[in-house]
Amino acid sequence: MAGSDDDAAIPGAVRRSPARYRDGVARVQADWVAEEVPVALSFDGEPFAVMMATPADIADFALGFALSEGIVDDAGELRIDAIEHTLDGIHVALSLPPERRSRIAARRRNLEGRSGCGLCGAASIDAVLRPPPAVPHGVAITPAILAQALRLLPAQQRLARLTGATHAAAWAGIDGNLLAVREDVGRHNALDKLIGSLASAGTDLGTGFCVVSSRASYEMAMKAAQAGMPMLAAISAPTALAIALAESAGMTLVGFARGEDCVAYAHPWRLAETD
Fold first, then answer.
1. Which of residues 79, 103, 128 is at a domain's end?
2. Within this chain, do residues 194 and 246 fall inside the same structural domain, yes or no?
3. Taking 80 as the threshold, does the pLDDT of residue 168 lie above it?
4. Checking DSSP bridges between strand 178-184 and strand 167-173, what pairing results, if any?
5. Which terminus of the chain faces fewer neighbouring Cβ atoms within 10 Å, N or C?
6. Sheet arrangement for strand 46-53
7. Judgement on whether residues 75 and 166 belong to the same structural domain of the protein
8. Does residue 123 carry a pLDDT above 60?
9. Which alpha helices (DSSP H) does the chain contain, by range?
10. What is the DSSP letter of 47?
């Protein structure tokens, strides 16, 4: 059981009563399970994408998605008109300024985006393999600072502790302390939620770095670069395409970040050796 009976309910978790087998004996016991629901995003009244996500921090998710997909360039360009919860899922109605509406056709999704796939349904290869903007110069940190952020992350993963089924994306300052954490059943959704929360808060992304509790796939590297994050550190491996994207965007990409041990796959200069 991921969470104990004493745990309080938090958004994104629901109570279920599975049969737990131990030593060949079944016992029905209440447990917390992560929610996964369709989240439909529409722009100016036109359906755009349906993503499978944890139903929490939806405003952050909508803004982060629009930013990481390159639909808008800053938070002030997106208006959230309504977030409607129904029996079928969640519908988010969004509005764009006229000068951004031409980007919708290039980014439109034909299929639903599953919780494990942030790029599912993209209509063309160009929409997926678009060149990211160059990230800010940023600051250099030591492996000890990165380790500090990694040590603090598990305590902030409330939904993961309760259900054992979610990823997290966190933003850390140059001292390694966590400034924002978001969770979701989809690693890319967690990153979108983090991006949205940072944009809403007006956070200067040149003064920190991002850590994620997952691998660093292409979609994760693209979202981080598109948002302007100078460094993305993952606890698991990157892919070759993620490394190539990070190289082209000037973003430091770190994999296998565990304690003070890590591997810098792109632009290692932001990870300074300890004196």
1. 128
2. yes
3. yes
4. antiparallel
5. C
6. 46-53, 37-43, 89-95, 79-86
7. no
8. no
9. 58-68, 102-107, 125-128, 143-156, 158-163, 187-201, 218-227, 240-249
10. E
The answer to whether residues 104 and 174 belong to one domain is no
Distance CA 166, CA 164 (A): 6
Cα–Cα distance for residue pair 236/213, rounded to 1 Å: 8
pLDDT of residue 105: 75
Cβ-count burial of 84 within 10 angstroms (0-12 exposed, 13-18 middle, 19+ buried)?
exposed
Report, as residue numbers or ranges, the catalytic residues.
117
Which is nearest to 224 in space by CA: 260, 175, 166, 267? 267
Angle, vertex CA 151, rays to CA 150 and CA 156, nearest 5: 85
22 pLDDT above the threshold of 60: yes
Number of domains, the chain: 2
CATH of the domain at 207: 3.40.140.10
Per-residue pLDDT band at 110 (split at 50, 70, 90)? very low
Q: Output the six-digit token pair for 6.
A: 């004493």
The domain in which residue 83 lies consists of 37-128
* Polymer length of the chain: 275
Longest alpha-carbon distance in the chain: 64
Least confident of 58-67, 132-141, 146-155: 132-141
Whether the per-residue pLDDT at 210 is higher than 50: the answer is yes
Same-domain check for residues 163 and 93: no
117, 153: one domain: no
Number of H helices, E strands in the chain: 8, 14
Contact 112, 50 (CB under 8 A): yes
In a domain, 25, yes or no: no
Task: State the chain's mean pLDDT as an integer.
Answer: 90
Q: How far apart are CA 38 and CA 22, in angstroms?
A: 34
